[in-house]
């Protein structure tokens, strides 16, 4: 315990415990969310990357706070302690260092808040793609929050634009105090308005489409958490001034709280989306099991080949295996070219004539052509297995100009 740990409205130990507990909870939720995304093979979207970016900013902000928390309470003692305790000899140099790092923490934690807002907008963008009349509201919220985000970054420098100078102690009192409070209050009011615009998107979405009561509860819970974030911002604004001076410790504490709660809200929204998606997958799977003839329940059985041979074969001393054609199932009729059949008798050693069926390679092969080509391929295999003096009757496939509506046959029965 240091001599200045009780100098502010929030003691040092409770401040650290509160920030670190919420920080640990936030990291746990983010890591759990990542595990769920990876486990369910859910693709990462832009809002997911924004949440990860916000988490990195939060880690940087909390880490930076821990490096100067003693100087922060020293500065609190200089401003608010009565009577003034004994100060170290280098307290002015520590004040300079504290001011620079405090500005850094507020900028980094504000980046967390902006990233969370944009992750909400990116998430809602995916939800409203098919809903009429929602784009104008989304663009309004996105544009407004973008402008407020840029203004918020400038506030922390504009409220006290001096560094390494004794005038930094004047920024918390008198005329500079009014300017600093004015900048900060304007930022917080605009921040609340931006949150309300973001909340308006799911509210309008609930009113525009019909969803189940269970999903309404999830959305309502998300809205309630966002309302909590607005309440935290109002608390931060209401306590900026203490005893006529700017209380930077109060502002830093509640801004870190807003950043941590914001990430948890965004993570909870993702949990809801994953849960709803998982329910939908279960519903589809159960329907597939219950629906006869569905893809998941269909089993393909090999049908026995037809006993009737389509090929007339003459052998001199050996017997060729039958080559059964595809059979049974009928596909929708197609208007196609009816190929002719040209029968010829060849010896094993005779010179083959030209096969007009080979000309099919120059055309788009229809299902009928594919079946006939398969016949011819099997015919060639059978012919190659003949003895040298074997004579086989073979059918040559050739193109005809006649057209018919031919029922096509598919072995798989589809």
Structural class: mainly alpha
Element pattern in H and E: HHHHHHEEHEEHEE
Distance between the termini: 80 Å
Instruction: Categorize the overall geometry.
Output: elongated
Domain unit count:
2
**Arithmetic mean pLDDT:** 71
Tally of individual helices: 8
The helical percent reads 55-70%
- Strand adjacency order, main sheet: 1-2
In the predicted model, the low-confidence regions spanning at least 5 consecutive residues are: 274-285, 291-323, 329-372, 390-414
What's the β-strand tally? 6
- Sheet with the most strands, sense and barrel status: 2 strands, antiparallel
Give the radius of gyration.
39 Å
Share of β-strand residues: 5-15%
Subcellular location: Membrane
Family: Belongs to the SAT4 family.
Domain Rhodopsin: 33-275
Keywords: Membrane, Transmembrane, Transmembrane helix
Notable traits:
two-stranded antiparallel sheet; two-stranded antiparallel ribbon; mainly alpha; 8 helices; elongated; 414 residues
Could you explain the architecture of this structure?
With 414 residues, this protein is mainly alpha-helical. It has two domains: 279 residues; 105 residues, no CATH class. Helix content is 59%, strand content 7%. α3 runs antiparallel to α4 and α6 runs antiparallel to α7.
Could you provide a short overview of the structure?
The chain has helices spanning 12-39, 46-80, 91-127, 135-158, 174-208, 213-238, 248-290, 367-384; strands at residues 241-242, 245-246, 334-337, 340-347, 391-398, 403-406. By secondary structure, it is mainly alpha-helical. The protein folds into 2 domains: 12-290; 310-414, no CATH class.
